Amino acid sequence: MSNRATREECFRRKLLGLPSGQADFVKQVKSGMILFLFEFERRELHGVFQACSDGTVNIVPQAYRSSGKQFPAQVKFIQLWQCDALSENEFRDAIRENYFSPYKFNFGLSERQVFLC
């Protein structure tokens, strides 16, 4: 998850990050897993990425500091495919069961959802 500014840093560093409250979720990410980045300002899903590290805390401690926030739960990635971003209207049906409010959804995707996205 990112805004426009942190999205650029994610791509530059090849590092995805979430707040410390999401560390348990990020620690479930294992090298080789498929990943996507959701940019919440434009409501777009970017990918397709692959974890090249296990999720952990503070791979790059100074990452995202320019945003004024901390995202220490991190995972390194490589880009598998260069794809156009999907708008939320394009991927909403694939992850419908993840929505817990009209504009908020759980991050984790099933294998079936990954293939649908």
Question: Brief overview, please?
Answer:
This protein is an alpha+beta fold.
Describe the model.
The protein is 21% helix and 29% strand. The protein is α+β, with helices and mostly antiparallel strands. The protein has a single domain (4-85), classed as ph1033 like fold. The chain is globular and about 35 Å long.
Query: What is the number of E strands?
Result: 8
Give the distance, in angstroms, between the N- and C-terminal Cα atoms: 16 Å
Number of domains: 1
Unreliable spans: none
Fraction of helical residues: 10-25%
CATH superfamily: ph1033 like domains
Strand content: 25-35%
Helix/sheet category:
alpha+beta
- What value does the Rg take, in angstroms? 13 Å
Assembly state of the chains shown: single chain
Largest sheet, in brief, is: 6 strands, antiparallel
Identify the overall geometry. Answer: globular
What's the total helix number?
A: 4
Indicate the CATH class: Alpha Beta
CATH architecture: Roll
Classify the fold: give the CATH topology.
ph1033 like fold
Helix and strand element order: HEHEEEEEHEEH
Spell out the blueprint of helices and strands.
Layout: H1 4-13, E1 15-18, H2 23-26, E2 34-39, E3 44-51, E4 56-57, E5 73-79, E6 86-87, H3 88-91, E7 99-101, E8 104-105, H4 111-116
Antiparallel strand pairs: 1-5, 2-3, 3-5, 3-6, 4-5, 7-8
